[in-house]
Amino acid sequence: MRSLRTTLLAAALVLGAAVPAMPAVPAAAAVAADGGDGFTIEDPRITESSGLAASRAHPGVYWTHNDQDEPRVFAVDSRTGKTVATVTLRGVGTPRDMEAISIGPDGYVYVGDIGDNADSWNHVWIYRFPEPRSLKDVTVRATQYVVKYEDGPRNAEAMMVHPKTGRVYIASKNEDGGGLYEGPARLVTGGTNTFRRIDEVPWVTDGAFSPDGKELVLRSYFSARGYAWKGGRLGDDQQISAPLQGQSESVTYTPDGKALMFGTEGAQSEVVRRNLGGDERESPDGDSPAASASGGGSGGASAPESGSGVGGGLAGPAGAVIAVAVLALAVRSRRRGRGGRQG
Fold first, then answer.
1. What SS3 state is found at 318?
2. Is the pLDDT of residue 232 over 70?
3. What is the rounded CA–CA span in Å between residue 156 and residue 170?
4. Residue 119 has pLDDT above 80, yes or no
5. Tens digit of each residue's pLDDT (9 = 90 or more) over 64-83
6. What gap in Å lies between CA 208 and CA 162, rounded to an integer?
7. Rounded distance, CA 253 to CA 267, Å?
8. Residues 41 and 76: beta-carbon distance below 8 Å
């Protein structure tokens, strides 16, 4: 079997030939004070950036973490790509597979230790700590929450905290589509927090709520979809422009809600900015090429496109190559170690 890198390169070449180019974003619109048009993570310790969250307290700073690492997160300055703080978490166990990070309306940072490649853990964890007021290397006491799903173990890489209600949501990851799970109104430390399935979602590697809480974006390896968020449930959805990256792992909104930042794993990985506007949101009525290829919005959580395993799939030769890439990623995911303690 070809290497993951080779497979993705082939997919990129086919996509370049088969998919009409997206309209270019004007240069003036692509440059912003917060992250510019993107940045490269320079820290050699960050080789598996699996989550991304825009700081609420420090403009231009993004929090990230490795997936299989000690309990720590990194604050990266988007203007330079350099780490400006490393926060080590005290009072939690040894992480197994940290896959997501989000910031709640309480000013606390939430880290989702929710990866479970074999769907075998009888519980996973969420860690919570206050976002530091100053940026420096520090050790902080964190709270650890035990999480279970009402319908049994699930692999997941997306955890989102609603910016208004503070409620935590998890999207499970499955080649055939996953579920959106809702946590209790408030997480508790004295027992188990049971998350219940409230909707169906495509294959998801990360997600993020808009700063106003009115939209939820879910990304996969090759696409992203935006869902209206109404009454705590998914509403109408639409395709959103997402970059093709080596291993598409993370997404977050900029603090002003005008753009999305997409991250990937790897040494010196790139975080790519996509402005939200007329050129970046695909019309749900199928007017744009991408919307036509994906079938547009469905008025709710859409199932993966047939044969693609991801939302907003592509047909024809591009779809075939992407399917091979998806298979390679799935095999890689299954082969990854399940290190760490069960707790």
1. helix
2. yes
3. 7
4. yes
5. 999 999 999 999 999 999 99
6. 9
7. 23
8. yes
